[in-house]
Amino acid sequence: MQGEEHDHASGQGTRDIRGRLADVLGKARVEDQGREKARQKEREQELNEERKRQRERDRDLGWEL
């Protein structure tokens, strides 16, 4: 039988699986937080660039040909 091949005490395998799942989910959360911080930083840079362009347009006297 397949069940006899495993020498786990009752409940031990469940804790191992839950522990591994918690590790994986924890790592995924950390990676998600890192990606979100990177996206947020990128958005801030884009906003700063747009503000900079707007300031330059506002300073323009309109004398270009």
UniProtKB/TrEMBL annotation:
Disordered as annotated region, ranges: 1-65
Source organism superkingdom: Bacteria
Protein name: CsbD family protein
